[in-house]
């Protein structure tokens, strides 16, 4: 059993090396923040990039999955959702590399993981959260979350003073307190439109990804799966500050490509790099500096 | 069409198990939908940043709210995101230990977990009490869920 887990999976008809390489890069780009776990994950990721035998050994990925899962347990309940997904993904790679049809197994795992995670996200937004479909979530978040503030300034038509006043308005008063003069709250029509577009556009594209990945595979559906996932990554991570999630989704999408889908594989690789650029180049901040006084 | 094998389905099985547990915990233990592996991020304003805990310490001739010390910030964050007995008692025990280090008397620690609600139209913000927990010094810790 152990020998099988340590033996590198063959390249021929196996899991694509680029999927394994990108997963290792994700581990390096966003190290775990638990000091006694991070060194082992980083070392394993480095070795897997450098050595084919490490990269293609099932044990490597089952070990990483265990370390990532340990991080989830240690910092419970504070881990973000993509850390859970990273653990499932590394486990999926380990199990696929130890199976006879490794590429098909990982393609199937990526399909189910993408479908289920997007279905849960849709369930939360459309059904379980009372403040998403009525628009409150994005109306509040665009004004209060620093990570969206520049986009709210640029696309919402707010001035910096209005943003500051709105933030004060959105702070709760101490129990029983009431202001003599209520604080002003300015919500330009452009900001309401931006919030509505983010709310419904986000829900629509996530629903499409969930449905396309969960429906039984058919030739035309495969293209719809990839188109919806790529569109989600390109649109969402331009604004959403969770590059780790985007890298993981694009790597999982890549694993779901057939070997002859060369242009789709290139598209996922391009999206992976695009998300890196989104993260490192603060384009909304630059636009805000140019356009907002 | 090929049938999926066990290795293909195990990861998604784990995902659904954890996500199902997360939904239950949000309903029964006030876990923030953003956390817990249920993929509820970016769906609600009820995130960790809009939750906070208030800690009150009392003893003979003493009853006051205490600030969260930097050494207890991590426990406070966990208690705010999941105000269940285990997390709240862990924070309370940390508060007791700190008070004793500074030779301050403490008999009970009361912790309140709060979140912010916004009204649908005007977005007026109000604080809402999610949970109140009282820890009496000497009480054994509840089991970790």
Protein model, in words:
- The complex is a heterodimer of chains A (293) and B (145).
- Chain A is mostly helical and 293 residues long.
- Chain A has 15 helices and no strands.
- Chain A has helices at 2-6, 17-29, 38-50, 52-55, 58-74, 81-97, 102-128, 136-144, 146-156, 160-169, 189-214, 219-236, 243-255, 262-280, 283-291.
- In chain A, α2 (17-29) packs antiparallel against α13, α12 runs antiparallel to α13 and α13 (243-255) runs antiparallel to α14.
- Chain A is elongated and about 75 Å long.
- The N and C termini of chain A lie far apart (65 Å).
- The model of chain A has no long low-confidence stretch (mean pLDDT 93).
- With 145 residues, chain B is α+β, with helices and mostly antiparallel strands.
- Helices cover 34% and strands 26% of the residues of chain B.
- Chain B has 3 helices and 4 strands; from the N terminus they run αββααββ.
- Chain B has helices spanning 6-28, 73-81, 85-101, and strands at residues 51-59, 62-66, 108-118, 125-136.
- In chain B, a hairpin with a 6-residue loop joins β3 (108-118) and β4 (125-136).
- The model of chain B has no long low-confidence stretch (mean pLDDT 94).
- At the A-B interface, α6, α7 and α8 of A face α1, α2 and β4 of B.
